[in-house]
Amino acid sequence: MDKLMALSIAISKDMARYEKESGLTTARIQLLWELAGGATTQQQLAAAMGVSPRNVTGLVDGLVASGHVTREPHPTDRRAALVTPTDSGAATIAELQSSYADLAQGLFGHLEQRRLAEFESVLDDTIARFAKLVEDSL
Amino acid sequence: MDKLMALSIAISKDMARYEKESGLTTARIQLLWELAGGATTQQQLAAAMGVSPRNVTGLVDGLVASGHVTREPHPTDRRAALVTPTDSGAATIAELQSSYADLAQGLFGHLEQRRLAEFESVLDDTIARFAKLVEDSL
DNA sequence: TATTGTTATACTCTATAACTATA
DNA sequence: TATAGTTATAGAGTATAACAATA
User: Fold this and answer.
1) Which chain B residues in 85-124 sit with Cβ < 7 A of strand C?
2) Which of A3, A84, A89, A126 could pair with A68 as two cysteines, CB 3.0-4.6 Å apart?
């Protein structure tokens, strides 16, 4: 448990370093990550991120100002805006994805199949147990 | 990797739920956690939490307002204040510690010694690899 | 009438810089 | 002169509530 926390904290700290370098923030990176699936309305983003629509307005404002996304008119619903990555934003998203893949490879790529499978199995079990504990406590 | 992230996110969400219930916040809980070792100056808290002294002022203000801590005069340095848990704050800290222990027990208590040791070993290895990757990238 | 996004307002976390009181 | 903590100021994330435009 302590070790899980330690790893999680270490990853967070490294993320913070990356954020400082890139001028992005955790919430804006998460929003960009959601856009990897394609242009999206703010309502959809709010639902996907588990955050209020008002909050998404602010995050998108910031990403527009930094040139990562634009608000394009929705083709069929004139109330809605399609949050769309710019070329620069798309490049950032690709970079995020590749960093993530590299990290996974660097951390686990060397493990023998059997150890990796065993590790995943314990993680699956832990996730399931955690879900059950949360459910029982409600 | 995805599973590690999933677990970490699940734990964060549950933390957020607890925070909402208790009226505390992540940063204030972290500060209380630091106080488990005993009353401490704000400078020490800032260093331990990796945060600015000004920030600690605000967090302590909040915890004073909610009745979790008080600022007591430092016995030898009249510039400094000792952030000290109240009875209620001490109860909260004890509750945090016991919840944490219960969670660890609920998640991993059932695992056979061998599986647990194997899991820890992979985690240790992952933490070490992560540290090395971060170091190399600097 | 319901939904999308924004304006208005407020709280928290965070930081830097300047200042006061004390060492 | 150096340190502990606060005031001043600022930016970001978050929320609710009220409102405009559109469905």
Assistant:
1) none
2) A89
Contact of B107 with A131, CB cutoff 8 Å: no
Nucleotide closest to A74 measured between CA and C1': C4
Q: Say if residues A37 and A90 touch (Cβ distance below 8 Å).
A: no
- What stretch of H or E contains A16? helix A2-22
Q: Is the pTM of this model over 0.70?
A: yes
Q: Give the dihedral of Cα atoms B108, B110, B114, B115; nearest 10 deg.
A: -50
Q: DSSP state, A84? A: E
The predicted-structure confidence for A54-91, as pLDDT tens digits, reads as follows 999 999 999 999 999 999 999 999 999 999 999 999 99
Q: Indicate the residue of B1, B120, B133 with minimum beta-carbon distance to A3.
A: B120
Cα(A101)–Cα(A105) distance, integer angstroms: 6
Interface contact B111-A131, CB threshold 8 A: no
Straight-line distance from the first to the last Cα atom of chain B, in angstroms, rounded to the nearest whole number: 23
Residue appearing with tokens 């990356």: A18
Instruction: Determine phi and psi for B37, rounding to 5 degrees.
Output: -80, -5
pLDDT band at B137, cuts 50/70/90?
A: confident
Interface test mutation site (partner A, options B15, B20, B29, B123, max chain A beta carbons within 10 A)? B123
State which residue has its Cα closest to the C1' atom of C11.
B62
Distance between CA A66 and CA A69 in Å, rounded?
8
pLDDT at B69 over 80: yes
